[in-house]
Amino acid sequence: MKLNQKSIAILVVVILFGGVFVSDALGLWKTESSKVPVKIQSGEFAGEADPADIRGSYTFGDIEKVFPITAETLGEVFWVTENPESFQLKRLEEMYPSEGEFEMGTSSVRYFVARYTGLPYEQTGEEGLFPVAIEFLKREGKISEEEAQTIPVMNPEIILQYEDAPEETVVEEHVEPLVKGNTTVADLFALGLSEEEIISVIGEFESKGELVRDVCNGNEVAFSAAKLTLQELAEK
Length: 236
Prior knowledge:
There is one protein chain. The relative contact order is 0.08. Among the domains are: about 50-160, no CATH class; about 185-235, no CATH class. The protein contains twelve helices and no strands. Helix content is about 45%, strand content about 0%.
């Protein structure tokens, strides 16, 4: 049987989309990468998710779905306080740049997850943890004091970036009032007030060289109240 070009084109389309349909029905067709680490293939932990396969594109929320550790816990030990569920691991290196022996990055998360879960993990020599993470592992009974001594601690210059900062002493800055006892009517114009605004507060005046205080006294207007009103008008 001969197939013309039209028949061949139809056959190709059927094979292509038919294969996609079958794959989708069987759960084999995926349009985006899976955020699930590969399984450990052998040994005591065979079938468990492998911490070494955690990727930089994973979020703390992705890890929470696979390993028995919450995104909040990961946020606590890696000092990610806002939306830890959506925080991508690869951002750690941007937040905590290091030129030292160790780095704070995806490898550190793999290492922490492995120690927390008790799953096997072969160190690369690059992993570093903050002291808060080490203390957390000890407090949860995941490691002993002796084991804690073998965990690389992040270098001091990076630690300074997340240590609690001392409380700042608030010093109230003295602000000089705009309207004072020696303020003239001309000064009020210079502050941007109109003639109508000035008269509505202090009353009629004879010249711009007069002191506001004197105009208020002559018009029986309380200067203390008038200067506050003038101040508010000037600050608008």
